[in-house]
Amino acid sequence: MPFPGLDWTPALDRPDLLAASTARALARWADDDDAVRASVLVAEIDPSLADTAALTAAYDLPLAASANCVVVAGRRAGDERTAAAVVLATTRADVNSAVKRLLDVRKASFLPMDRAVEGSGMEYGGITPLGLPEGWRVLVDARVAATDHVVVGSGVRRSKVALPGPLLARMPGAEVVEDLAIA
Questions:
Q1: Which of 42, 62, 136, 178 has the fewest CB atoms lying closer than 10 Å?
Q2: Residue among 149, 123, 160 nearest 39 (CA)
Q3: Is 77 exposed, middle or buried (0-12, 13-18, 19+ CB in 10 A)?
Q4: Judging by DSSP bridges, how do beta strands 137-141 and 79-88 pair with one another?
Q5: How much of the chain exceeds pLDDT 70, in percent?
Q6: What is the Cα–Cα distance from 157 to 151, expressed in whole angstroms?
Q7: Exposed / middle / buried, residue 124 (Cβ in 10 Å: 0-12, 13-18, 19+)
Q8: 129: which DSSP letter?
Q9: d(CA 125, CA 139)
């Protein structure tokens, strides 16, 4: 198990601990990639500890192995462009430069919480790159991709997912980006 502070089990064996869209995305991905079934794990947590700082303290998880998934958007010619940026918790998404450039918009900003929750179909504090809506880009910072195991949301606040960073980097639709985040 990657992090001994939690009771990890294969995520596909516990769909009750995943958002419905996350469970569907993992099942589809597992059909195409044998590593998913054994390597993507889920652990139940206290939902009041879902935020990164509280989670890492309570479960003795290394902050450098936690990744945040933030939803950003910008407009170009009246068309909204939405993306999820996945960055290590020790960094922050470079929304004003890297994300803006990648979305090809004049201004990019974090999507308001209510819109991020509604658009993703996931709970605030649990939004994950696994199972986001079609049409949303999934931008993964190269440092996340290089992490042995990374902890991300599960789509719900009551659990977390752990998987190898290189596996997350090859998730369908993922785009690995150098310098997506700044320290």
A1: 178
A2: 149
A3: exposed
A4: parallel
A5: 99
A6: 13
A7: middle
A8: S
A9: 18
- Report the DSSP pairing between strands 41-44 and 159-163: antiparallel
Spell out the domain ranges in the chain.
Answer: 9-172
Q: State the pLDDT confidence band at 176, using cuts at 50, 70 and 90.
A: very high
Is the Cβ–Cβ distance between 55 and 49 less than 8 Å?
Answer: yes
Q: Which fold has domain 9-172?
A: YbaK protein (3.90.960)
Mean pLDDT estimate for the chain: 96
HSE-CB at 121 with a 13 A cutoff on CA atoms is 15
Distances in whole angstroms, Cα of residue 62 to Cα of each of 4, 59, 79, 93, 108: 11, 9, 39, 19, 30
**How does pLDDT run across 84-120, given as a tens digit for each residue?**
999 999 999 999 999 999 999 999 999 999 999 999 9
